[in-house]
Amino acid sequence: MAEENGRVWSPDISEIGDKIVALSVAKAVELGDYMEVVHKIKPAASAVAVAGPAAGPAVAEKPPEQTEFTVQLDGFDPAKKINVIKIVREITGLGLKEAKDLVEGAPKAVKENVSKDEAAKLKTKLEEGGAKVSLK
What's phi and psi for 85, nearest 5 deg? Predict the structure, then answer.
């Protein structure tokens, strides 16, 4: 007899339980249909739901959608350097020297923790000005 948390299980019950847990989702559905048709027992939805995920390989969960982005200046067209510096100043509010240092020190973050829409607008603006930009 198997024992778990002080409770004793008979071998036949342990064997049946282990077999049910090892079923794939498709086989669990087939078992539910069999029980309903042959024995007139309609399985509870939660019983199948509990058996399903434990039996098969874990279904990969969709990672949470990113809500905050960093606009990173990766490079620029040397002929449009002054234009890129102007745009960086406009976006960041930095002084001329700080904006120039940021542009020349690429790759560097221009703006951090911004929404997806704002990040897309800033990326477009910088790219139109001659910069190479990525969102992180």
Answer: -60, -40
Distance, CA of 74 to CA of 110 (rounded, Å): 10
Contact between residue 125 and residue 86 where contact means Cβ atoms under 8 Å apart: no
**CA atoms of 26 and 101, how far apart (whole Å):** 61
Residue type, 81: K
| Per-residue confidence (pLDDT) for residue 59, from 0 to 100 | 56
**pLDDT tens-digit readout, 87-131:** 999 988 989 999 999 989 889 888 888 888 898 999 999 999 899
Say if residues 35 and 47 touch (Cβ distance below 8 Å). Answer: no
Identify residue 86 by its one-letter amino acid code. K
pTM (predicted TM-score): 0.51
Name the residue among 7, 5, 2 with its Cα closest to residue 18.
2
